[in-house]
Amino acid sequence: MNQLTNIMKKIAILAVLAILVSACINRSAVRSFERFGSGEPYDAIIVPGVPFENGEWSEVMKMRVHWAVHLYKNGTAKNIIFSGSAVYSPYVESRIMALYAAQLGVDKAHIYTEERAEHSSENLYYSYRIAKDNNLNKIALATDPFQGSFLRGFAMKIKLNDIGFLPIIFDTLGTIDLSTPMIDPKTAFVEDFQAITERENGFVRFQGTMGKYIEYKEEDDPKLKRKK
User: Fold this and answer.
1) Domain ranges of the chain
2) Which of 5, 23, 106, 139 is the Cys-Cys partner for 101 at CB 3.0 to 4.6 Å?
3) In this protein, which residues make up the domain named DUF218 (predicted)?
4) Rounded Cα gap, residues 128 and 158, in angstroms
């Protein structure tokens, strides 16, 4: 009986901690949005990819796409750059997300796909380059607060100082119709696919996440920036 009581106490403590952490994350997201979400609309928002598996989008992909569509429809962003290659499944993540966004009402002329990135740091940088190369100069990252926190630190590390951060506010997301439109994923399918887990070990993937393999344009190279 005592053992059961102790287990229940631990579960209760963990539940309270989870609620507190969630509340802190949401407050942090609200503060970030208040800082970066005012003023003129962003020329583009960057949305990192998520694997598309078993013919369905995950809850994470769903909330990222719906948040991006929300920012587009309310005038916060003029364009959306979805980022991600075929990494863990044979579907190009950015194309899948673009298909969903188009079905949710985003004009295809305002959707860009970045199809090279295999890690979140690459999602950020390669999408940043697509924006700059298309004269989309006011740019923000729009993703969940967990990933956004890491990528905000990474952006500071590589001195991308002109990126805003519009993390998902879960209270706002809860007011949105999170429906699942029908798409045809065939156009995002990659033949002869090999998952990243078959090509790279865990350490190499970790280095990729930390941005080790990014091919920078000379003007963005953080090593050259530090010398100036």
Assistant:
1) 33-227
2) 106
3) 43-148
4) 12
Nearest to residue 127, comparing CAs of 223, 228, 220?
220
What's the rounded Cα separation, in Å, for the pair 133 and 77?
Answer: 17
Supply 53's token pair: 């598996």
Residues 6+ apart with CB under 8 A from 152: 141, 165
Give tens-digit pLDDT for 10-27: 444 433 333 334 445 667
Q: How far apart are the first and last CA of the chain?
A: 67
Fold of 33-227: Rossmann fold (3.40.50)
Task: Retrieve residue 13's tokens.
Answer: 């403590």
Quickly list DSSP for 79-129.
-EEEE--S-SSSB-HHHHHHHHHHHTT--GGGEEEE----SHHHHHHHHHH
